[in-house]
Structures are given as C-alpha cells and as structure tokens.
Amino acid sequence: MQDSISMSQSKVLPNETPLEEVVLGACLQDLDALHSVIPILKPHSFYKIEHEKIFNAMSTLYAQTNPVDIMTVVDFLKKSGELEMVGGAYFISKLTDRVGNGSNAEFHARIIQQSFIKRELIRVSGDLYNMSFEDTSDALEILDHANNEILSIGTSISGKQAKSNKQLVQELIEKSELAASGVIQGLRTGLLEADKLTGGFTNGHFIVLAARPGMGKTAKALQEAYEFAVTQGRRVLFFSVEMSAPQLMLRLMSYHTGIPAYKIRTGQLSTTEWGIINEMSQEIISSKLVIIDDCLTKTEIRNRIISENIKAPVELVYVDYLQRVQNNIQGGSREQVVADISTTFANLAKYLNIPLVALAQLGRDLEKRGGNKRPQLSDLRESGQLEMDAHVVVFLHRPEYYGIELSDDNLSTEGLAEYIVAKNRDGITGTANLKWNPETTSFADWDDAASYIPNPNTFLEPMPSVTVRSTQFDIPKNMPYKDNDMEDPF
Predict the structure, then answer these.
(1) Which of 102, 163, 314, 348 could covalently link to 30 via disulfide, CB atoms 3.0 to 4.6 Å apart?
(2) Distances from the Cα of 220 to the Cαs of 20, 191, 211, 238, 414, in angstroms?
(3) Cα–Cα distance, 475 to 109 (Å, whole number)
(4) What is the sign, positive or negative, of the torsion defined by CA atoms of 273, 275, 279, 281?
(5) Which tens digit of pLDDT belongs to each residue from 344-382?
(6) Whose CA is closest to 197, among 376, 393, 488?
(7) 80-92: buried (b, 16+ CB within 10 Å) or exposed (e) per residue?
(8) Which domains are seen in the chain, by residue range?
C-alpha cells in the first residue's frame, strides 16, 4: 500500500495543459465560448498558474460586464502586476492561434474539470492516508474530515458565477414589488399567518423550530412536511432521531384523514373511516416524503442527505431533533457538540440550496419562570451557536399547557398555540396565532387572529376563514387520547 502511494506521488498530476490553452484562446475570441465555460470552470480549475491568472482576469471582467478580449485581459493583468508572470502580451495573443472550433469549448472545459477533480481527490487521499497512520487520530474524526473535503470539492466545481450589482438590484426590486402586493415568496407551510411572518421557507436557510416537550414541535414539523410533500409534490426528507417511522406515520395518517390517532391505533374505526383511510393513504404512498429513523449521528444524516440528493433532488429536510443527534467530538462539552452539529446543518442547507429545518428542545429554566412562560432566545439549550447559525428561529408556545387560562388580553387560551418568530434574519419578528387540535396532533390558522395579540409585531389584519378537512365520527366517552406508552406524544 505504501509503495503504491509513493509511486502515485512521484507521478505527474492529471492535467490537460494543451486543452487549457485551447479553452483560453476560444474565450478570448468568442463570447459564446466564454458564456459556456464560465459556469463550468473556476480559476483554480487550471493546472498551470499562468492559465489560472489569465482565466481569473477573464472571469473578473465578465462578472463586471466588461468586454473580454486580448486587449482588456492584457490591461487587467498589467494593472495587477501579473502580466510578465503569465508570459506577457505576446503569449496571450498567441493563445488564439490554438483554437480550431470555439463551439467545442464547453466539451473541452468539462475535460479540464475532470482533471481538476482528480487532482483534488489525490490531495484529499494523501491527507487521509497520513491521518490514518497517526495513533492519536480518531477514526470518526477522519471520516468527518473526508466528508468535509469531498463536500468542498463539490462546492468548488458547482459554485455559481457571482451576480453583477445590476442583477442583484433588479432581483431585489422584483422581490420588493411582490412583497408589496402580498405575495409570499418562500415555500408555503400552509398556515397563512405563520407564512406572513417568515415570508415562507427560503432556499439555503437553516431554520430552528424550538419548544418545550408537549408543545407540538414534532406535530408542526410533520404537518409542514405533509404540506410540502403531499400537497405541493416536493421531495422531503424527515429524519427522526427520537420517534420511530411507524409512530410518525400514525400521526401523518391522522392529520391526513382527520381521524384521531387513537382510533387508528386501536382499530376502533367505522366502515366509513376505513374507506377514508384506504382511499387517502394512496396520496401519502405516492408522495415524495421519505421518513428516516435509522440515522443517529451527524455524519450519518449528512451522508444520507447527500446520497438521497444524488438519487433525486431533495427540496426540504427536517431533523427531529437536534440535541438528540450524536457526534464524535471526544472530550468536548455538550455546547461544543451542539455547535458543531448546528454549523454542519447550516452549511449543508447553503450548499444544497434548500431549507433545512432542525427541531430543538428548550431548557427547563423556562418553566421555572413566572408569568406567561413565553420562550425567548436565551432558552435555546446548550448552544449560542445555534442562535447564530439559524436564519430563522421559531418557538411554539401553548399557554393552556401551563394552566394559563387567559391571554394577555384576558381572553380564553383554550386551543391557542403561539407561533413565535424570535429571529428572522431577512424579515420581521412577531407572533402568529394557531389553533391546536389534540385529536389529530395538528395546527390550523386561528379563525380570528386579531383576538390574540401577544406581540406588537403581529400582523393585525383579520384572517380569512379557513376550511379544515375533517371527518364526522362519534368519539367514545372517556376514551383517552394521549398514548400511555409515549413519554412525549407531541
């Protein structure tokens, strides 16, 4: 093994130097060639440093919407002090002599990209080889390092070309006009008042949904996953580190059909209800929702997300819940472990450009406080990094759970659930009011949101009436809803 490594290190690294010159020449004389090459190659994709500097000049001029030709590239390199290093103006002018057909530039660029990937894999393999021989190295840490390095290679070849200021301003104005007309631009969860606050889920955002046990955070996340996967047809991964897939499917079926979970679990169903389940279950079966309950560690979850994304593009990810995810940091505090997991998920959301929603448990100190026991950012357990990484932090709070019978406005809190947006990096904070249904462990829009205004930032306009799917049935008297064999059914 060691001999083979030594031999590979003595070889010339994979490269396509002649093709690099052909591609550079094509880009200098054909704008269409440059258009096709820019999304594929980055300056560091080139093997020769001289070629890297020349392509960097081209890319910079292109991003600034300036002309790209021999004269502008020579001028750029002269001003940066790199002209003589790349071979001077004569070398740059001779590059166009190497071009046969500029229409082949994209094909040639992909060959150059292949060589770059191979060079990066050789570099990473060498690092892993050396780390694996160190007695002090932890095998799981090496595996994590390998995953991060492979991920960085993917990022380096798939990164998008930087947008010009003109493009950014145009997009900003378009989004502002849509927002002014009341259009929710992100992915909708199906609850109007909540979506008004957050603007919907945005691609690339790391979203934290936090609550104390019993508030309904798993139910809320599962309901959102249903909306995205079953109603909107999106591909959603739902990782459950706490509950089993059969338990989650029971909740999902209860929400989907409107039949209480205890009736489905115990089989106490009428003929009509059996028919509803048989008919409506097909929608769940044919959906793109994937429930995963066999990934317990950060590395397993990350690898599974990436592998699933290779099979078919993943559009949303849920992790229930963050503090139960295991990590391999040895000797680190619990705060360091949670911080590492949080940062990994935030980076993964950005890399895949999808919303990644992590559920989180709030600390017990919240319950020791007097007053309304409403959560705040300081209640996030074990990691300030979690608050820093998150684009959006949402709390669920049900005053009724704590025996609080009246709201701040002296109105009944029966069935009231507060959807508290405590942090919103790209928008406002405030509270939307939801209606909690314990029989189907689900949430609905409150019929009159103006009845409860616990936060001055709440939207004040009355909500339109909402039709919630329901099924008529007779509930046996004294039939308990809460599962006795589940510590935290919500």
Answers:
(1) 102
(2) 53, 10, 11, 12, 18
(3) 67
(4) positive
(5) 888 888 878 889 999 988 877 777 777 777 888 877 766
(6) 393
(7) eebbeebbebeeb
(8) 2-158 (1.10.860.10), 178-451 (3.40.50.300)
Alpha helices in 65-203 (DSSP H): 70-80, 88-94, 105-132, 139-158, 165-180, 192-198
Q: How far apart are CA 386 and CA 430, in angstroms?
A: 20
Q: What is the pLDDT of residues 205-217, one digit of tens each?
A: 899 998 888 888 8
Q: What are phi and psi of 356, to 5 degrees?
A: -120, 120
Transcribe 301-341 into DSSP letters.
HHHHHHHHHHHS---EEEEE-GGG-B---SS--HHHHHHHH
Per residue in 224-240, pLDDT tens?
Answer: 998 888 888 889 999 98
| Nearest-10 Cα torsion for 244, 250, 251, 253 | 140
What does the DSSP 8-state code read for residue 213? T
Burial class (CB in 10 A: 0-12, 13-18, 19+), 224: buried
Residue 451 structure tokens:
């009845």
Residue in the structure block whose two tokens are 């892993």: 128
Find where tokens 């589940």 sit.
Answer: 486
